[in-house]
Amino acid sequence: MTGSPRTDTAQLMELLSLSLGAYYGDFTLAAASENLTASQGKALTVLRRGPAAMRSLADTLTCDASNMTGIIDRLEKRGLVRREPSPSDRRVKNVVLTTEGERATDAIRAKMQATQEGLDRLTAQERDTLHTLLERVFLAQPAI
After folding, report:
1. What is the C-alpha to C-alpha distance for residues 105 and 30, in angstroms, rounded to an integer?
2. The pTM is what?
3. SS3 (DSSP) at 104
4. Torsion sign (Cα): 90, 92, 97, 98
5. Proportion of the chain in helix, strand, coil states, percent, rounded to 5
6. What span, in angstroms and rounded, lies between the C-alpha atoms of 36 and 29?
7. What are phi and psi of 47, to 5 degrees?
8. How many other C-beta atoms lie within 10 A of the C-beta of residue 11?
9. What is the mean pLDDT of residues 78-94?
10. 77 pLDDT more than 60
């Protein structure tokens, strides 16, 4: 053994692609079981973290602001979200998850059987390691 990496970046990117495809498929089916599109489900999932401005939601979900407005309009009609003025800037509307929206988000996660089963195959230590690695790869801010 030479100490060189056994898995190169291209292999990891391919595995991430396959993993995300499986996760997205599982998520899409679970959202559909709640009569939601994948985009609506993703919006609810983002809002589970806390209220967000419409522009911020559009940026997070990488969609056009007009598309985000349509998604939020449909969620609001179902009572899953509500709009309220931002406390720091009354011109900005924040989108807030309602109690029913929280229930729908929880139901989506609970119905993601393939993802749950895959994660359940990991030991507690492996889950901790995966969490640390995913956080480091996707959430860590690069040093400037």
Report:
1. 10
2. 0.84
3. helix
4. positive
5. 60, 10, 30
6. 9
7. -70, -20
8. 11
9. 90
10. yes
Please report, in angstroms and rounded to a whole number, the separation of the first and last CA atoms in the chain: 35
Distances (CA, A) of 93 to 46, 52, 83, 96: 16, 8, 6, 10
71 and 144 Cβ atoms separated by less than 8 Å: no
Look at the chain and count its residues.
144
Can you spell out the DSSP letters for 109-132?
HHT-HHHHHHHHTS-HHHHHHHHH
Strand order in the sheet with 52-53: 52-53, 93-97, 81-85
pLDDT at site 141: 67
| Residue 16, number of CB atoms within 10 A of its CB | 13
